[in-house]
Amino acid sequence: MAALSKTLSPMLTSWFESLARKMQPNLIDRFSKPPKYSAGKDPESLIEEAGEKAKSLEEKAPEFFDMIEAKDLYSGLKRAQSGETAMGLINPADFRKIAAPLPDDAPLNSVERKFGYDYSMGLVNKNVKEIEDLIRNKILLGDATGSGVPELGLENIDNKLLQARFHEGRHRNRALKNLGYDKSLVEVLPSTYRGDIVTYKPDVDQFLNLPKDTKIYSEMREGPLSNDPEPQNVGTLGDIIKFLSVGGIATKGALSQLPEE
Prior knowledge:
By secondary structure, this protein is of the alpha+beta class. The protein has helices at residues 2-7, 10-22, 43-60, 70-82, 92-98, 111-114, 117-136, 170-178, 237-240; strands spanning 27-29, 36-37, 86-90, 151-157, 161-168, 184-194, 197-200, 215-217, 233-236, 242-243. It has a domain at 88-243.
């Protein structure tokens, strides 16, 4: 992997070096004998774990290195490179269509529209505005400000369609859209949702060999607590999600057939 580090741009090299400094050993138990320290990381080991995905992200959307807290971004890139999840780019407007609707997108006859609408939307708009201010003022998303990388849980239904099962990041995507961004970074987690319980499978094998025209349907959870509307076809996998390059995936075949930008 030393060869990979030599191919990194000066920006990425500096990013990994800075990340390594943030991950130096820290005292975690001063009362043990001897005191316990967390394991540190050197730049080479970080590059080995996430360098391929970081290179792909720099090629496709380098702005996210200046938008998302480094440790948060590294964690997602590492999971994607190992094949546990997938990471790609999505238009914020498409994320809005896929995720469960906020009150202003809910059907007119829904509970969200009938009860507490003004209060709920007041909270939504306040949070979106705060995120816009963070981005505008170059304050990193993640860590103290909350998770930086939005998430989508998708379930492969009989290799015929992808059904969205959960989300995280609706407010961030609204903020990005309001600020004029046409790309949002998203971590895609293979998931199921049964009886109001999300089950996450830590691999992406269920996406293997899916064609680019596989349809993605808007979020629908199952169980007595779900108020989600009937899922709608929002587009195809190839059109909606542009996955980061697959060169660094360690698991056999994972994502090798997924569309790339």
